[in-house]
Design brief:
single chain; 475 residues; alpha/beta; Rossmann fold; GMP Synthetase, Chain A, domain 3; nine-stranded mixed sheet; seven-stranded mixed sheet; 14 helices
Amino acid sequence: MCKTLILLYLRIIKNLNTPKSIIYFSIKRYRNRTFLIQPDDNILLSFDDFRNSLKDTILSLRRLGLHTGDVLGYSCFNSVDYFQIRAACHILNIVFLGLPVNLPQQDIDYLLNKTKAKALFKGKDIQILNSYHRGVEDSVLNSKVSTLNLSSGTTQRVPKIIQITHKNWVESLYNYVLNSGENLNSKTVFLCKLPLVTAGSTTFLPAMLAGITYVVVKENISSEELFNYIETFNVTHLYVTPSSLIQFMLWCRQNSQQPPPLKKIITGTERFPTWKLKEAIEFFGPIIYVGYGMVEALPPITMLTPRDYHKLDSVGRPVKGIRLKVLKDGRIAIKGRTVSFGYLDSPEDKIVHFEGNWFYSNDYGHLDKDGFLYIVGRGEDILTERPQRIFASEIEDMLYKLGFIENCAVIKKNNEVGIFVVLKPGADREGSKRNIIKAIEVSSIKDIPVVIVIKDNLPINYLGKLDRLTLSQEL
Protein backbone atom coordinates (compact mmCIF):
# COMPACT_ATOMS: atom_id res chain seq x y z
CA MET A 1 0.00 0.00 0.00
CA CYS A 2 2.81 2.40 0.90
CA LYS A 3 4.51 1.91 -2.47
CA THR A 4 1.20 2.45 -4.27
CA LEU A 5 0.62 5.74 -2.43
CA ILE A 6 4.12 6.90 -3.32
CA LEU A 7 3.47 6.15 -6.98
CA LEU A 8 0.16 8.02 -6.93
CA TYR A 9 1.85 11.00 -5.29
CA LEU A 10 4.70 11.09 -7.79
CA ARG A 11 2.69 10.41 -10.93
CA ILE A 12 -0.54 12.29 -10.26
CA ILE A 13 0.09 14.97 -7.63
CA LYS A 14 3.66 15.81 -8.69
CA ASN A 15 2.94 14.97 -12.35
CA LEU A 16 6.28 13.20 -12.82
CA ASN A 17 5.39 11.42 -16.05
CA THR A 18 8.34 12.27 -18.28
CA PRO A 19 12.12 12.02 -17.85
CA LYS A 20 12.25 15.82 -18.15
CA SER A 21 9.86 16.38 -15.23
CA ILE A 22 11.75 13.85 -13.08
CA ILE A 23 15.06 15.58 -13.75
CA TYR A 24 13.70 19.02 -12.84
CA PHE A 25 12.01 17.63 -9.72
CA SER A 26 15.25 15.99 -8.53
CA ILE A 27 17.63 18.89 -9.03
CA LYS A 28 15.20 21.17 -7.19
CA ARG A 29 14.44 18.77 -4.32
CA TYR A 30 17.97 17.53 -3.56
CA ARG A 31 19.98 20.71 -4.16
CA ASN A 32 22.58 20.30 -1.42
CA ARG A 33 23.01 16.53 -1.63
CA THR A 34 26.10 15.01 -3.22
CA PHE A 35 25.05 13.53 -6.55
CA LEU A 36 28.06 12.49 -8.65
CA ILE A 37 31.58 11.48 -7.62
CA GLN A 38 34.12 10.70 -10.33
CA PRO A 39 37.29 9.60 -8.49
CA ASP A 40 39.60 9.43 -11.54
CA ASP A 41 39.21 13.15 -12.21
CA ASN A 42 38.59 14.25 -8.62
CA ILE A 43 35.08 15.47 -9.49
CA LEU A 44 32.36 15.89 -6.89
CA LEU A 45 29.03 17.46 -7.88
CA SER A 46 26.03 18.26 -5.72
CA PHE A 47 22.61 18.29 -7.35
CA ASP A 48 22.93 22.09 -7.42
CA ASP A 49 26.31 21.86 -9.16
CA PHE A 50 24.75 19.45 -11.62
CA ARG A 51 21.90 21.91 -12.27
CA ASN A 52 24.38 24.69 -13.10
CA SER A 53 26.47 22.52 -15.42
CA LEU A 54 23.27 21.23 -17.03
CA LYS A 55 22.30 24.80 -17.93
CA ASP A 56 25.63 25.22 -19.75
CA THR A 57 25.19 21.90 -21.57
CA ILE A 58 21.69 22.84 -22.72
CA LEU A 59 22.95 26.18 -23.97
CA SER A 60 25.80 24.50 -25.87
CA LEU A 61 23.45 22.08 -27.60
CA ARG A 62 21.14 24.92 -28.62
CA ARG A 63 24.05 26.95 -29.99
CA LEU A 64 25.08 23.97 -32.10
CA GLY A 65 21.64 24.00 -33.71
CA LEU A 66 20.32 20.78 -32.18
CA HIS A 67 16.53 20.68 -32.03
CA THR A 68 13.65 18.40 -31.10
CA GLY A 69 13.95 15.04 -32.85
CA ASP A 70 17.62 15.39 -33.78
CA VAL A 71 19.83 12.44 -32.87
CA LEU A 72 22.95 12.97 -30.75
CA GLY A 73 25.45 10.11 -30.63
CA TYR A 74 27.41 9.62 -27.42
CA SER A 75 30.59 7.51 -27.32
CA CYS A 76 32.59 7.77 -24.08
CA PHE A 77 33.69 5.71 -21.13
CA ASN A 78 31.62 6.22 -18.00
CA SER A 79 31.85 9.81 -16.76
CA VAL A 80 29.72 12.63 -15.36
CA ASP A 81 29.42 13.87 -18.95
CA TYR A 82 26.97 11.04 -19.60
CA PHE A 83 24.57 12.35 -16.97
CA GLN A 84 24.81 15.93 -18.24
CA ILE A 85 24.40 15.08 -21.93
CA ARG A 86 21.59 12.61 -21.39
CA ALA A 87 19.70 14.97 -19.06
CA ALA A 88 20.07 17.81 -21.57
CA CYS A 89 18.76 15.56 -24.35
CA HIS A 90 15.69 14.64 -22.29
CA ILE A 91 14.97 18.30 -21.58
CA LEU A 92 15.40 19.40 -25.20
CA ASN A 93 13.69 16.29 -26.65
CA ILE A 94 16.87 15.39 -28.50
CA VAL A 95 17.21 11.64 -29.14
CA PHE A 96 20.16 10.17 -27.23
CA LEU A 97 22.10 7.39 -29.01
CA GLY A 98 24.52 5.51 -26.75
CA LEU A 99 27.54 4.05 -28.56
CA PRO A 100 29.96 1.77 -26.64
CA VAL A 101 33.52 3.02 -27.04
CA ASN A 102 34.78 -0.44 -27.99
CA LEU A 103 32.69 -0.60 -31.15
CA PRO A 104 34.83 -0.55 -34.31
CA GLN A 105 34.81 2.83 -36.02
CA GLN A 106 33.14 1.37 -39.12
CA ASP A 107 30.25 0.18 -36.91
CA ILE A 108 29.95 3.58 -35.24
CA ASP A 109 29.85 5.22 -38.68
CA TYR A 110 27.18 2.75 -39.80
CA LEU A 111 25.01 3.41 -36.72
CA LEU A 112 25.38 7.19 -37.00
CA ASN A 113 24.41 7.01 -40.66
CA LYS A 114 21.48 4.65 -40.06
CA THR A 115 20.03 6.92 -37.36
CA LYS A 116 20.81 10.07 -39.36
CA ALA A 117 22.58 11.49 -36.31
CA LYS A 118 23.27 15.20 -36.39
CA ALA A 119 26.05 15.30 -33.80
CA LEU A 120 28.49 13.07 -31.93
CA PHE A 121 29.86 13.59 -28.42
CA LYS A 122 33.23 11.85 -28.13
CA GLY A 123 35.96 12.64 -25.67
CA LYS A 124 35.02 16.09 -24.45
CA ASP A 125 33.78 17.59 -27.69
CA ILE A 126 30.55 17.61 -29.68
CA GLN A 127 31.09 17.27 -33.41
CA ILE A 128 28.40 18.29 -35.91
CA LEU A 129 27.95 15.56 -38.50
CA ASN A 130 26.89 17.32 -41.66
CA SER A 131 27.10 14.11 -43.67
CA TYR A 132 24.43 12.56 -41.46
CA HIS A 133 22.27 15.68 -41.10
CA ARG A 134 18.60 15.12 -41.59
CA GLY A 135 15.56 17.29 -41.77
CA VAL A 136 12.19 16.65 -40.16
CA GLU A 137 10.82 15.60 -43.53
CA ASP A 138 13.00 12.47 -43.71
CA SER A 139 13.00 11.50 -40.06
CA VAL A 140 13.36 7.76 -39.44
CA LEU A 141 12.10 8.02 -35.86
CA ASN A 142 8.74 8.09 -34.17
CA SER A 143 8.18 11.37 -32.32
CA LYS A 144 7.80 9.51 -29.01
CA VAL A 145 11.33 8.07 -29.12
CA SER A 146 13.54 9.24 -26.26
CA THR A 147 16.71 7.18 -26.69
CA LEU A 148 18.19 4.73 -29.14
CA ASN A 149 19.85 1.83 -27.36
CA LEU A 150 21.78 -1.05 -28.85
CA SER A 151 21.20 -4.76 -28.41
CA SER A 152 23.99 -6.70 -26.73
CA GLY A 153 25.41 -7.67 -30.12
CA THR A 154 26.02 -11.26 -29.07
CA THR A 155 24.25 -12.73 -32.08
CA GLN A 156 25.39 -10.39 -34.83
CA ARG A 157 28.45 -8.27 -35.56
CA VAL A 158 26.58 -4.95 -35.58
CA PRO A 159 24.02 -4.52 -32.77
CA LYS A 160 20.38 -3.80 -33.53
CA ILE A 161 19.05 -0.33 -32.75
CA ILE A 162 16.13 -0.29 -30.33
CA GLN A 163 13.74 2.64 -30.03
CA ILE A 164 12.86 3.43 -26.41
CA THR A 165 10.18 5.98 -25.66
CA HIS A 166 9.81 8.50 -22.82
CA LYS A 167 6.99 6.30 -21.52
CA ASN A 168 9.21 3.19 -21.51
CA TRP A 169 11.79 4.91 -19.31
CA VAL A 170 9.23 6.27 -16.87
CA GLU A 171 7.44 2.92 -16.61
CA SER A 172 10.76 1.15 -15.97
CA LEU A 173 11.49 3.64 -13.19
CA TYR A 174 8.12 3.21 -11.50
CA ASN A 175 8.28 -0.56 -11.88
CA TYR A 176 11.48 -0.40 -9.88
CA VAL A 177 9.88 1.84 -7.24
CA LEU A 178 6.85 -0.45 -7.01
CA ASN A 179 8.86 -3.65 -6.74
CA SER A 180 11.83 -2.44 -4.71
CA GLY A 181 12.06 -3.78 -1.20
CA GLU A 182 13.75 -0.70 0.20
CA ASN A 183 13.75 3.09 0.20
CA LEU A 184 16.85 4.71 -1.26
CA ASN A 185 17.95 7.90 0.50
CA SER A 186 20.79 10.37 1.01
CA LYS A 187 22.89 7.67 2.72
CA THR A 188 22.74 5.41 -0.33
CA VAL A 189 26.02 5.32 -2.26
CA PHE A 190 25.70 3.52 -5.59
CA LEU A 191 28.41 2.20 -7.93
CA CYS A 192 27.73 0.78 -11.37
CA LYS A 193 30.45 -1.25 -13.09
CA LEU A 194 28.51 -1.53 -16.36
CA PRO A 195 28.73 0.83 -19.33
CA LEU A 196 26.29 3.72 -18.86
CA VAL A 197 25.55 3.67 -22.59
CA THR A 198 24.32 0.07 -22.38
CA ALA A 199 22.85 -1.77 -19.36
CA GLY A 200 23.93 0.99 -16.98
CA SER A 201 21.51 3.38 -18.71
CA THR A 202 18.65 1.98 -16.60
CA THR A 203 20.22 3.48 -13.45
CA PHE A 204 19.96 7.10 -14.62
CA LEU A 205 16.36 7.96 -13.68
CA PRO A 206 16.23 5.90 -10.44
CA ALA A 207 19.39 7.65 -9.23
CA MET A 208 17.91 11.06 -10.01
CA LEU A 209 14.51 10.40 -8.43
CA ALA A 210 15.96 8.85 -5.26
CA GLY A 211 18.56 11.58 -4.73
CA ILE A 212 21.39 9.11 -4.10
CA THR A 213 25.15 9.54 -4.41
CA TYR A 214 26.48 7.90 -7.57
CA VAL A 215 30.15 6.92 -7.80
CA VAL A 216 31.02 7.07 -11.51
CA VAL A 217 33.85 4.74 -12.52
CA LYS A 218 35.09 3.44 -15.83
CA GLU A 219 33.52 0.14 -16.75
CA ASN A 220 36.88 -1.57 -17.30
CA ILE A 221 38.32 -1.06 -13.81
CA SER A 222 40.14 -3.97 -12.18
CA SER A 223 38.84 -5.92 -9.19
CA GLU A 224 41.46 -4.23 -7.01
CA GLU A 225 40.25 -0.79 -8.09
CA LEU A 226 36.64 -1.83 -7.48
CA PHE A 227 37.54 -2.98 -3.96
CA ASN A 228 39.28 0.34 -3.20
CA TYR A 229 36.37 2.43 -4.54
CA ILE A 230 33.83 0.51 -2.47
CA GLU A 231 35.96 0.94 0.64
CA THR A 232 36.91 4.59 0.07
CA PHE A 233 33.42 5.88 -0.69
CA ASN A 234 31.46 3.56 1.62
CA VAL A 235 29.48 2.16 -1.30
CA THR A 236 26.23 0.56 -0.14
CA HIS A 237 24.80 -0.63 -3.49
CA LEU A 238 26.75 -2.29 -6.30
CA TYR A 239 25.49 -3.04 -9.81
CA VAL A 240 27.67 -5.58 -11.60
CA THR A 241 27.42 -8.44 -14.10
CA PRO A 242 27.68 -12.06 -12.88
CA SER A 243 31.01 -12.48 -14.69
CA SER A 244 32.46 -9.39 -13.03
CA LEU A 245 31.15 -10.42 -9.62
CA ILE A 246 32.71 -13.88 -9.98
CA GLN A 247 35.98 -12.22 -10.99
CA PHE A 248 35.77 -9.86 -7.99
CA MET A 249 35.10 -12.76 -5.62
CA LEU A 250 38.13 -14.66 -6.95
CA TRP A 251 40.35 -11.59 -6.52
CA CYS A 252 39.22 -11.11 -2.92
CA ARG A 253 40.02 -14.75 -2.15
CA GLN A 254 43.39 -14.75 -3.89
CA ASN A 255 44.41 -11.58 -2.05
CA SER A 256 42.91 -12.62 1.31
CA GLN A 257 40.67 -9.56 1.28
CA GLN A 258 37.37 -9.48 3.09
CA PRO A 259 34.85 -7.75 0.79
CA PRO A 260 33.83 -4.30 2.04
CA PRO A 261 30.38 -4.21 3.67
CA LEU A 262 27.61 -3.75 1.11
CA LYS A 263 23.86 -3.61 1.65
CA LYS A 264 22.91 -4.80 -1.80
CA ILE A 265 24.52 -6.32 -4.89
CA ILE A 266 22.36 -6.13 -8.03
CA THR A 267 23.40 -8.36 -10.89
CA GLY A 268 22.01 -9.24 -14.28
CA THR A 269 22.44 -8.92 -18.08
CA GLU A 270 23.66 -12.53 -18.38
CA ARG A 271 23.00 -15.91 -16.79
CA PHE A 272 24.43 -16.47 -13.30
CA PRO A 273 25.37 -20.18 -13.03
CA THR A 274 23.53 -21.58 -10.00
CA TRP A 275 26.62 -23.10 -8.39
CA LYS A 276 28.56 -19.83 -8.68
CA LEU A 277 25.59 -17.82 -7.41
CA LYS A 278 25.39 -20.05 -4.34
CA GLU A 279 29.11 -19.57 -3.81
CA ALA A 280 28.77 -15.78 -4.16
CA ILE A 281 25.93 -15.67 -1.62
CA GLU A 282 28.05 -17.63 0.87
CA PHE A 283 30.94 -15.19 0.29
CA PHE A 284 29.14 -11.83 0.19
CA GLY A 285 26.12 -12.75 2.29
CA PRO A 286 22.38 -12.83 1.44
CA ILE A 287 22.48 -9.43 -0.29
CA ILE A 288 22.52 -10.52 -3.94
CA TYR A 289 19.55 -9.69 -6.17
CA VAL A 290 19.46 -11.29 -9.62
CA GLY A 291 17.49 -9.37 -12.23
CA TYR A 292 16.26 -10.44 -15.64
CA GLY A 293 15.68 -7.87 -18.34
CA MET A 294 16.70 -6.73 -21.79
CA VAL A 295 16.83 -3.58 -23.87
CA GLU A 296 13.73 -4.55 -25.83
CA ALA A 297 11.74 -4.81 -22.56
CA LEU A 298 13.41 -2.62 -19.96
CA PRO A 299 14.08 -4.15 -16.56
CA PRO A 300 12.93 -5.15 -14.12
CA ILE A 301 11.09 -8.09 -15.72
CA THR A 302 11.78 -10.57 -12.95
CA MET A 303 13.82 -10.32 -9.76
CA LEU A 304 15.30 -13.04 -7.56
CA THR A 305 15.56 -11.65 -4.01
CA PRO A 306 17.01 -13.18 -0.83
CA ARG A 307 13.57 -14.45 0.17
CA ASP A 308 13.59 -16.51 -3.06
CA TYR A 309 16.89 -18.30 -2.44
CA HIS A 310 15.00 -21.59 -2.11
CA LYS A 311 14.62 -21.34 -5.93
CA LEU A 312 18.18 -20.29 -6.63
CA ASP A 313 18.23 -21.75 -10.14
CA SER A 314 15.42 -19.39 -11.21
CA VAL A 315 15.49 -15.66 -11.98
CA GLY A 316 12.55 -14.99 -9.66
CA ARG A 317 8.95 -14.08 -10.26
CA PRO A 318 7.70 -11.49 -12.77
CA VAL A 319 7.50 -8.08 -11.10
CA LYS A 320 4.23 -6.19 -10.77
CA GLY A 321 3.27 -4.61 -14.09
CA ILE A 322 4.84 -7.36 -16.22
CA ARG A 323 3.20 -10.40 -17.85
CA LEU A 324 5.12 -13.40 -19.11
CA LYS A 325 4.24 -16.41 -21.20
CA VAL A 326 6.24 -19.32 -22.51
CA LEU A 327 5.49 -20.35 -26.08
CA LYS A 328 5.12 -23.95 -27.22
CA ASP A 329 8.68 -23.93 -28.54
CA GLY A 330 9.97 -22.75 -25.15
CA ARG A 331 10.66 -19.12 -26.01
CA ILE A 332 9.76 -16.41 -23.51
CA ALA A 333 7.42 -13.52 -24.38
CA ILE A 334 7.08 -10.34 -22.30
CA LYS A 335 4.24 -7.85 -22.09
CA GLY A 336 4.24 -4.55 -20.24
CA ARG A 337 4.61 -0.82 -20.61
CA THR A 338 8.38 -1.13 -20.69
CA VAL A 339 8.32 -3.03 -24.01
CA SER A 340 10.07 -0.80 -26.52
CA PHE A 341 8.69 0.72 -29.71
CA GLY A 342 10.70 -1.77 -31.75
CA TYR A 343 13.84 -2.02 -33.85
CA LEU A 344 14.78 0.95 -35.99
CA ASP A 345 14.16 0.57 -39.69
CA SER A 346 13.87 -3.21 -39.42
CA PRO A 347 10.29 -4.21 -40.28
CA GLU A 348 11.07 -7.93 -40.60
CA ASP A 349 12.58 -8.10 -37.10
CA LYS A 350 9.69 -6.07 -35.71
CA ILE A 351 7.14 -8.50 -37.17
CA VAL A 352 9.01 -11.48 -35.69
CA HIS A 353 9.60 -10.01 -32.23
CA PHE A 354 6.93 -7.33 -31.59
CA GLU A 355 3.20 -7.97 -31.80
CA GLY A 356 0.22 -6.81 -29.76
CA ASN A 357 2.38 -5.11 -27.10
CA TRP A 358 4.26 -8.39 -26.60
CA PHE A 359 7.99 -8.85 -27.17
CA TYR A 360 8.88 -12.37 -28.32
CA SER A 361 12.43 -12.94 -27.17
CA ASN A 362 15.05 -15.46 -28.22
CA ASP A 363 15.42 -16.63 -24.61
CA TYR A 364 14.18 -20.11 -23.70
CA GLY A 365 12.83 -21.16 -20.34
CA HIS A 366 9.82 -22.23 -18.32
CA LEU A 367 7.57 -21.07 -15.47
CA ASP A 368 6.97 -23.32 -12.49
CA LYS A 369 3.69 -23.71 -10.60
CA ASP A 370 4.65 -20.88 -8.22
CA GLY A 371 5.28 -18.46 -11.09
CA PHE A 372 9.10 -18.51 -10.94
CA LEU A 373 10.89 -18.12 -14.27
CA TYR A 374 13.79 -20.38 -15.25
CA ILE A 375 16.10 -19.40 -18.11
CA VAL A 376 17.87 -22.25 -19.88
CA GLY A 377 19.56 -20.25 -22.62
CA ARG A 378 19.27 -18.36 -25.87
CA GLY A 379 18.66 -19.79 -29.31
CA GLU A 380 22.34 -19.61 -30.21
CA ASP A 381 23.20 -21.58 -27.03
CA ILE A 382 21.43 -24.74 -28.24
CA LEU A 383 24.04 -27.49 -28.61
CA THR A 384 21.76 -30.16 -30.03
CA GLU A 385 18.09 -30.90 -30.67
CA ARG A 386 18.49 -34.68 -30.76
CA PRO A 387 17.28 -36.71 -29.00
CA GLN A 388 16.25 -33.62 -27.01
CA ARG A 389 17.15 -29.94 -26.86
CA ILE A 390 20.30 -29.32 -24.82
CA PHE A 391 21.64 -25.86 -23.95
CA ALA A 392 25.21 -24.86 -23.13
CA SER A 393 24.06 -23.83 -19.64
CA GLU A 394 23.04 -27.41 -18.84
CA ILE A 395 26.52 -28.71 -19.62
CA GLU A 396 28.11 -25.85 -17.66
CA ASP A 397 26.00 -26.74 -14.61
CA MET A 398 27.07 -30.38 -14.98
CA LEU A 399 30.74 -29.33 -15.06
CA TYR A 400 30.47 -27.17 -11.93
CA LYS A 401 29.22 -30.22 -10.03
CA LEU A 402 32.60 -31.90 -10.62
CA GLY A 403 33.99 -29.73 -7.84
CA PHE A 404 37.40 -28.80 -9.27
CA ILE A 405 36.21 -26.17 -11.76
CA GLU A 406 36.41 -22.51 -10.77
CA ASN A 407 34.80 -21.12 -13.91
CA CYS A 408 33.70 -22.52 -17.25
CA ALA A 409 32.05 -21.76 -20.57
CA VAL A 410 30.60 -24.07 -23.20
CA ILE A 411 30.59 -22.75 -26.76
CA LYS A 412 29.29 -24.33 -29.95
CA LYS A 413 30.84 -23.43 -33.28
CA ASN A 414 29.77 -25.22 -36.43
CA ASN A 415 29.57 -28.91 -35.43
CA GLU A 416 32.04 -28.69 -32.57
CA VAL A 417 31.67 -27.84 -28.88
CA GLY A 418 34.41 -26.03 -26.99
CA ILE A 419 34.66 -26.48 -23.23
CA PHE A 420 36.73 -23.73 -21.63
CA VAL A 421 37.55 -24.20 -17.95
CA VAL A 422 39.46 -22.44 -15.19
CA LEU A 423 40.55 -24.90 -12.52
CA LYS A 424 40.50 -24.30 -8.79
CA PRO A 425 43.92 -23.81 -7.13
CA GLY A 426 45.77 -27.09 -6.71
CA ALA A 427 43.66 -29.03 -9.24
CA ASP A 428 45.67 -31.39 -11.48
CA ARG A 429 45.34 -30.30 -15.13
CA GLU A 430 45.63 -33.71 -16.77
CA GLY A 431 43.50 -35.46 -14.17
CA SER A 432 40.85 -32.76 -14.44
CA LYS A 433 40.81 -33.11 -18.21
CA ARG A 434 40.30 -36.86 -17.95
CA ASN A 435 37.41 -36.40 -15.52
CA ILE A 436 35.77 -33.87 -17.84
CA ILE A 437 36.05 -36.34 -20.73
CA LYS A 438 34.44 -39.06 -18.59
CA ALA A 439 31.57 -36.73 -17.68
CA ILE A 440 31.01 -35.81 -21.33
CA GLU A 441 31.04 -39.47 -22.43
CA VAL A 442 27.90 -40.16 -20.40
CA SER A 443 26.22 -36.84 -21.14
CA SER A 444 23.64 -35.83 -23.72
CA ILE A 445 26.35 -34.37 -26.02
CA LYS A 446 28.48 -37.51 -26.12
CA ASP A 447 28.11 -37.78 -29.91
CA ILE A 448 29.32 -34.23 -30.60
CA PRO A 449 33.05 -33.54 -31.15
CA VAL A 450 34.39 -31.74 -28.06
CA VAL A 451 37.52 -29.64 -27.53
CA ILE A 452 38.63 -29.03 -23.93
CA VAL A 453 40.69 -25.91 -23.24
CA ILE A 454 42.10 -25.20 -19.77
CA LYS A 455 42.71 -21.49 -19.23
CA ASP A 456 44.03 -19.23 -16.46
CA ASN A 457 40.94 -17.03 -16.75
CA LEU A 458 37.97 -16.43 -19.02
CA PRO A 459 37.75 -13.17 -20.99
CA ILE A 460 35.17 -10.51 -20.14
CA ASN A 461 33.99 -8.12 -22.85
CA TYR A 462 33.36 -4.37 -22.66
CA LEU A 463 29.81 -5.04 -21.42
CA GLY A 464 31.19 -6.88 -18.40
CA LYS A 465 29.87 -10.20 -19.71
CA LEU A 466 31.66 -13.43 -20.46
CA ASP A 467 33.21 -12.87 -23.90
CA ARG A 468 31.83 -15.86 -25.75
CA LEU A 469 32.68 -14.40 -29.15
CA THR A 470 36.38 -14.28 -28.30
CA LEU A 471 36.27 -17.84 -26.96
CA SER A 472 34.55 -19.08 -30.12
CA GLN A 473 37.44 -17.73 -32.18
CA GLU A 474 39.75 -20.18 -30.40
CA LEU A 475 37.85 -23.14 -31.85
